[in-house]
Amino acid sequence: MRLSNKAAIWIAAFSVLFVVVGLYAVRSYRDAFEASVQANSVERSGEALKLIINRSLNREWDSLDALASSADVNNPIRLQRMADTMPRASRRLSWAGFISTGGIVEAGTGGAEVGWNVSKARWFRSALRGPTLSDPFQAKSGSGLASFINLAYPVRRDGGQVAGVLVYRLSMSWLESFVTDSAKALGMDAFVVDSAGNMLVSAHTVSGAPPSAASLHAARLSMLRGLLPVETREAGYVSASIPRLLGNSLRSNDWTLIVRMPNRLHVAVGGETWQRAETALIAIAMMVGLCLIAAMRMFLRPIEIQSQALIDLTEGKFTYPPEFHSSREARDLGASLAFLQTQFEDLRAKVNAGVDGRGGAGGAGGTGKGTSPDASGKSGRVARLHPVRGNPYRKAS
Questions:
Q1: 151: helix, coil or strand?
Q2: For a Cys-Cys bond, which of 43, 94, 109, 133 suits 240, CB 3.0-4.6 Å?
Q3: Which of 94, 104, 95 minimizes the C-alpha distance to 73?
């Protein structure tokens, strides 16, 4: 059977559409899968950097906890000696001191700031209730000013009453250098922002651009949606905002870590699998097309044969096609066609018999009024029946 042009076009169009839609779905799923892998990668890298920073700062918190449990608040000489010794023991510390419950600095490294009153400082009031990290502030460093943060820890008496506050002062330049080195090892940018969106630490290792507005918004959002990481995307990069950089045990810990990595995978994820999926999709489309052609041959071929028999019938040719059972339509059409052919055969036989009878009667009378052969010399038998408008059948000329 030869397919019609329309059928061939429809099958080709369907196959092409199937391939296009299938490839679009496969590649969209691949892109979504790779985006999910990238998001998980940047979030895990951010959590790893958060853990590194926490471990580094936890050493100072552990040191403060040990000092607070052994500090003799009634011995100013020992307190001053402790304040002088701690910065030499840890290069991270710029200053250490002890503050009474009234907010008066009673001991400080090198005697610096002794006698100052810090009772109105928010970090000090918070430290009377538990370990506290201050906001960055400016203080003298050599001949100029530098940015610092205070780690404050309450000192309690045996009865549990607060006797004062121990303070470690860390330089923000050290924290920024530490974050930069760690971020470089992990291959990403890192930023530390507070709840107001102010940049505290900026470590550029893969891009010189500041964090996007979307990532800053996500940093605030992460503090509101259950303290979960929030992923954002920008041109060429994917970012994640990790809330509570310094853990959950500190008061006023509203710092958020923003990490940013290039929006590409170093190793293709499932490259051969995607190629096999696309090849399988094309093969399926070809199989579907072949199945459509086979189905058309199975269901339309009988109708084509029966249609040709009907065309022959209009020309007076009686051909009886075989019976088909490939479809209900082909079966019913075949039965109707056989019935019509049988009726036409009977009708033609009756018409020809009548013509023969009239011709014989005319010949017996011999008078010339009977029916005689036509002028063309034909015998008068109906050779063909033609369907015409208004009169179903007429004699062939």
A1: strand
A2: 43
A3: 104
User: To which residue do tokens 């990481």 refer?
Assistant: 229
Closest by CA position to 215, among listed 265, 260, 264: 260
Q: Which of 54-58, 116-120, 265-269, 285-289 has the lowest mean pLDDT?
A: 265-269
Rounded CA Rg of the chain: 49
User: Do 154 and 73 touch, CB atoms closer than 8 A?
Assistant: no
Which residues are registered as beta bridge partners of 385?
395
β-partners of residue 98 are 107, 166
Residue 47 has pLDDT above 70, yes or no: yes
Q: How far apart are CA 254 and CA 294, in angstroms?
A: 69
> What are the tens digits of pLDDT across the range 304-330?
777 777 777 776 676 766 766 666 776
The pLDDT score that the predictor gives to residue 316 is 67
Residue 154 has pLDDT above 90, yes or no: yes
CA gap 39, 180 in Å, rounded: 21
- Other Cβ atoms less than 10 A from the Cβ of 331: the count is 14
Q: What is the pLDDT of residues 220-267, one digit of tens each?
A: 766 555 445 555 666 778 888 888 887 765 656 678 888 988 876 555
CA distance 177 to 181: 6
Domain layout of the chain by residue ranges: 304-397
How far CA 120 is from CA of 70, 125, 161, in Å, comes to 27, 7, 20
Model confidence, pTM: 0.61
End-to-end Cα separation, the chain, in angstroms: 36
Rounded to whole angstroms, what are the CA distances from 80 to 61, 63, 102, 168, 394?
A: 20, 16, 18, 14, 134
Q: What is the pLDDT of residue 169?
A: 93
Neighbours of 385 (CB within 10 A): 20
Distance CA 322, CA 312 (A): 15
Pull the structure tokens for residue 183: 């971020």
Confidence band for 181, pLDDT divided at 50, 70 and 90 = very high
With residue 55 as reference, give the H or E element that holds it: helix 5-70
Distance CA 233, CA 240 (A): 9
